[in-house]
Amino acid sequence: MPKCSTFPKTLKHTLQLTQTQTLLSYSSSNFPHPPPVSPQIFKSTTSHKWGSYKLGDLSFYSLIENLSSTFDFHSLELLLHRMKRENRVFIEKNFILMFKAYGKAHLPEKALDLFHRMGAEFHCRQTVKSFNSVLNVVIQEGHFNRALEFYSHVIDSNSFNHVHPNGLTFNLVIKALCRLGLVDQAVEVFRGISVRNCVPDSYTYSTLMHGLCSVGRIDEAVSLLDEMQIEGTFPNPVAFNVLISALCKKGDLVRASKLVDNMFLKGCVPNEVTYNSLVHGLCLKGKLEKAVSLLNRMVSNKCVPNDVTFGTLVDGFVKHGRALDGVRVLVSLEEKGHRGNEFIYSSLISGLFKEGKYERGMQLWKEMVEKGCEPNTIVYSALIDGLCREGKTDEAKEFLLEMKNKGQIPNSFTYSSLMWGYFEAGDNHKAILVWKEMTDNNCNHHEVCYSILINGLCKNGRLKEALMVWKQMLSRGIKLDVVAYSSMIHGFCNAQLLEQGIKLFHQMLCHEPELQPDVVTYNILLNAFCTKNSVSRAIDILNTMLDQGCDPDFITCEIFLKTLRDNMDPPQDGREFLDELVVRLIKRQRTVGASNIIEVMLQKFLLLKPSTWALAVQQLCKPTKVRKTISECWSRLHC
Known about the structure:
Layout: H1 2-24, H2 57-69, H3 73-85, H4 92-104, H5 108-120, H6 128-140, H7 144-155, H8 167-179, H9 183-191, H10 202-214, H11 218-230, H12 237-250, H13 253-265, H14 272-284, H15 288-300, H16 307-319, H17 323-335, H18 342-354, H19 358-370, H20 377-389, H21 393-405, H22 412-424, H23 428-440, H24 447-459, H25 463-475, H26 482-494, H27 498-509, H28 519-531, H29 535-547, H30 554-566, H31 575-587, H32 591-603, H33 610-620, H34 623-638
């Protein structure tokens, strides 16, 4: 009986194989011309330019379907040319099958080429169906500009006046525009949909909402939800989840909670995506106990938490310095029948090491291995990084060899951690050997690797070698980061080449915001000038620091206090200097920076002037700030 049940499928496969071999065998070098096809399969009839249906056409269509599913594009091309010579009828749905196959094979240009050949070469008229199919293939590959060019070419061309865009077309165009950050143009297209006698659906609204949220225009996206309901389009969970996720990332949990209530009112049941967004938002705000409570409520609502849920919660505990609580979440996860994945283990191991809990980190590693969870590159890298932080570089090197023996390929992060560890241990030779090993293993040196190498060389007084690496970065077009700049400036300052350090500093000021000097950079220069007793130039740097929106920290205060105490005649305790700094920060409404300086002064028993105290109290206790504090308290109560 089992053999009988599988016979039809086997017979069909045999017939298809026989037809394929018969039709395509002429591609072999033994057959310069196509062999005759059995008249029992195909029967010729008279036809005009566009061709006409024949008895064998369905067999050709079946072959197109089979060859598309196996991505045999060479045979497909041969088959299309044979059909053309025999004046067979080409139908659009077969081309759509081929377009989808090109999409799955990541060949969008082939799909575009075939679309243009449909009418010109194979006399098959394109409609919006085939147009949308190709447009989707190009967008799925992330070629958004190419997709928009294709859209404009077809819609604006007289050659394709029979292709009329529909709702799906506009959804795809809006998606491409949003992914390019061209949200205003996406809104313009959205507003023009009705002119084309189309009606936006829930997917249209959701796509535009996502685009608006991605550029921070959340209020407009929320308004779009209201408009959607007024226009009679029923919002689906995707639309709600887009807004809830954006609000949670922003930290606006009150509005996110209201949207969840609105979901229930509209009959939309929150799913795991909804809960994951809320858990993520709570973790960002440090409300970890509420995140755990929400997790329990998720389970009670019969919504099963997934790896993302648990991973987000564990990562939240780790980021707030509570890795041990994260371990407890993992234990709870395993008690419920789930298994920790590589993301969870790497996050916990890394967190435990960063908190100085070396023994617990190693214990978790052993538990993971004992449970049969094979560590991958991510987990190995977290362990190696943790060991290097503990100064156990030789042990880290052993694990690097182990991971390679087990077939796990080290990445840039793995090597960077080990290289940093050797530099911190003062073993420059081994650090450079790690760099060379990366090259030998064809592992790309990204900007972090270069920054670690430059920083390590500069710290050890090897400025010439650091300069060579710096020039190599520039020649290879590798993006310089703040660490690389600060390291080179530090190297110049240590070599008593302050003017070259200042030159690099001014280069940073001319760069985009992400490359602006940070407090570490400023402290390097301040310390260099104060050490040389160039207090006036140090003050100039401090003024630039304040003008650029960078607040002084504890180290900044220590640099100036030491200089005023050791290099001034008579020595000064620095009270007036710091007092004035507090006033300047308050007047610029930099309350966080001012608070930090006040904290330093209190620790040093340096009292503020009464007038400065009054100004500080007035600024820190403004009615708007009080209202904001009260609002935050209410948010905690209701969230």
